[in-house]
Predict the 3D structure of the following.
Amino acid sequence: MITVRKSDDRGKTKLEWLDSKHTFSFGDYFDPKWMGFKSLRVINEDVVEAGQGFSPHPHKDMEIITYIVEGSLQHKDNSGGGTIIHTGEVQKMSAGTGIIHSEFNPSQIEIVHLLQIWIIPEKKGLTPMYEQKVFSTQDKQGKLLLIGSKDGRQGSIQIHQDVNLYSSYLKKGDDLTYSFDQGRGGWLQVITGELQVNDQTLSAGDGAQISGESEIHIQCLEPSELLFFDL
């Protein structure tokens, strides 16, 4: 079964400096029908204005993945660490026993467009840690490129949970087939473009929860960027 989560039905936070859309319940947005899927707890699509950002705030016992669509995001934390995440880069923060961090758009002229993803870890009390990698557009073309996994295989970032995270750029007419192992499901998040997943059509911002399917067929209707989770 494929259940579509339409972009316009997502929760919304609109501030002078932030335009955020919440696939699942988050912050002041609560919908008991959309509390997450398996270990996937949060998908927030954020657009942060130039020179603005999230002031220091705490996290604990969560795998937090930042995927930059456009622009750059500066990260700082209470350990003294800091880095800038650029377009095409992915950062994983294991919050573990607890960390305080801030995230700002370092540009004074350009927005930053990103997806922030929270995955519930397989166990609590992990030592906080970071990992950041570049995955090129070319490597993602026409296929599902593994960018996150439990064991960090194939150069992916390590996620402390039984999840495989893929990224892809597809051109019009591309098609992919993905097969699930027994008992597993998926979430497909369209970032840009338009796709058909089995008999469902998805546009930018739409998500698809996939349960009880042995495989899915993805056909690209318009040039698209997507994330896909096997959980």
